[in-house]
């Protein structure tokens, strides 16, 4: 195998130590929503200047791969992706955790991540120069169709109502337009607000949309967050291995998808895992179980996102074009070391490159024991921690994590508000995931579309641009296939007079119920948002910046009106009845918002201590005893101060200080 | 305890000496803790790479770490709008770019004004350049112009964003050469370069840094410099070819408004010192950058001229009304 002689170079005690340290740090960083591998690697770069280039690369690569895996923890246990790469892991991971299989889900994620990471590294090792051509073959129109393929997943994620899913997706696409447009210099949908000029930060939106609703529901009832088993079941490694073996085709296919999508500089781990998930769901014999706690979903997402690590290094090293932001930081560190990336890198600096790749392999293998151990620890912590402490801790993490992304208090406020919106619309059957899909894929779709349109018009061949290129046609075919496949399967099953599988593919139940005015109202508000966007689009100076939001807004208005109409005549599925305390539900976001506002005035630590204590009270369902009070308050002080110190001094995040601290 | 007078005199002297030393030490010890260097873009761009190259020299010369972080959004506007509210003890600095900090506030309300910024030094720039793939039919600038004249609008240029240095260059050159080409905005230099390498567009309005990074994968037809870039002795300047076009994107460093005058001066001196280092210069030039030196003392006049030039160029290009 290529550069096998460098395996020994990678196996020095120091390099193995770096790999181990990197994987552990990365896993922890990745599991905290808001903290990204990019940030961790960026902080560490100065340390690497005095290291051997290969060792420095191993350390950074290990952090990166660990972080991508660590994102699965919070996705599974808290329904909150730790990094955008693990969005799709929430789809099945959280349902598994809810039914008491969180430990199994984490072990499955660990196995899948290791395999995916190894497959990605294998391609990097053996086929990097030829595979880098993939990055170049993908033009604007291919990115556009790839985004559309990703959006087709909305059909599967809409949990019962396709129209609601499409409306949610359109809302997400519109949200992705907020701020300075990438395709023009127009400022869109900010309504004069300066804080919105930077747009809606994706990670902040993810944290808000996924995590706040979980917290709001958590405080309402005294039930445990996750089921606690009576007898410890260990890692459940045997079961996980059996699942991985059963899903071996899925595992390999997803890893290859992850590698290829990872090579595309404009895509990344989130797109890779969505594509792999979509394909796994289509190909699976129990596809209808996807989204309800099917371990195959986790296999697909976690193997594909870790495969993007190796894949992303391919264009970074061969073309000097970073595959992901983390790759870009590593590329910068390489330049300082005097290493020029490019087609000749693999021959001219072969020793460094191959030692690094082997180091990445070692780090990935080390992820198995460390990942299982850390995962076990994360699981035990989340499962056993009293709810009264869990809620303020997680709320605190969402605030500090969101702030750290770009030192912005307004991002924190946007995060909380989006969370509240996410909670409200999900009460009325608008799932959060289509909104998130829209947010993530919106910029890819829009830029790809505008660029393809511009180039197509310039060469006078728009149809050829959109429908005449082989890769595009391939992606279009897959999109149609995955949209129609469920119906096709149902139809085939019906012809064979087999029982129709439950769930997808079946026409919605058209039992007329009572008019559902609340849903109709929410839908009308969404239609109104679409209308406002249409008005806003009339102010844009550049026609390029209007095309996309106008199209999306029209879809949003149309879909919302259909939903409203169906609800008004009693065709929709009425919202489930709420259980638990409304005041507590309301108190949670209100406390968070107030304390986010206090941050600038009184400093981060005082504001967060107040928030922690207030949420402690909101989330406390058991009677207070002096012991509990003392313990919980002390825990709050330790957590807030400890993480403040870590972020302020470890990661150099300038958290607002004050006269108090 | 009562000490003799002599001793108290000595003590006073000693105290004075310590104070003085402390004072001198204090001045010499700035910065006395790690410095936060904020790049208002994502990693991997020209601003980031130049900052990364400065990082080890800073540590070596001034003994403190330069900690780089990325605060992306709004084409830099998110970071710049925050700048004056950041810690003003001199240990927080931010990368700034021209023409961005002139064009953005002139176009719309982006939360900061050009005149409210405190640039302390402009240290490098990336000259505009037309980049084509190595296999392109355009061997010379004249080839491209001739083709564009016969096929108006058919030549497509990738570039980073709109209202940016790349976009401005495209509009200006179209005017100078009397041609019509199509500008395709991408999300940064990386994607714009990938597009030209993959033949998705006919050429790219990039920088000399692209030529340095891509080596013989690409060919630069001309660079917008007064003289040829030392790394590319064979690539002509636009001026040589008869087009009065020089310029590019300038990069510098700014501090929050509250930073004391002597610390602004200290920053100017520190960046100047790094810029003079032979090793640093070589790394920058090898990376395709061009070095410039605009210290804090000359800032006001310099900024006024840049503002006037860019505003009028952008108006001419139709980017500003």
From TrEMBL, chain A:
Keywords: Membrane, Transmembrane, Transmembrane helix. The chain crosses the membrane at residues 16-45, 57-76, 104-127, 134-156, 162-183, 195-216, 256-277, 351-379, 385-405, 412-445, 465-488, 517-535, 547-569, 590-617, 629-647. It holds the Pfam family TctA. The keyword Transmembrane applies. Residues 17-437 form the DUF112 domain. Residues 521-656 form the DUF1468 domain. The keyword Transcription regulation does not apply. This is C4-dicarboxylate ABC transporter permease. It comes from Propylenella binzhouense.
TrEMBL record, chain B:
It comes from the Bacteria. InterPro entries: BUG (IPR005064), Bug_dom1 (IPR042100). Gene3D superfamilies: Bordetella uptake gene, domain 1, Periplasmic binding protein-like II. Belongs to the UPF0065 (bug) family. This is Tripartite tricarboxylate transporter substrate binding protein. It comes from Propylenella binzhouense.
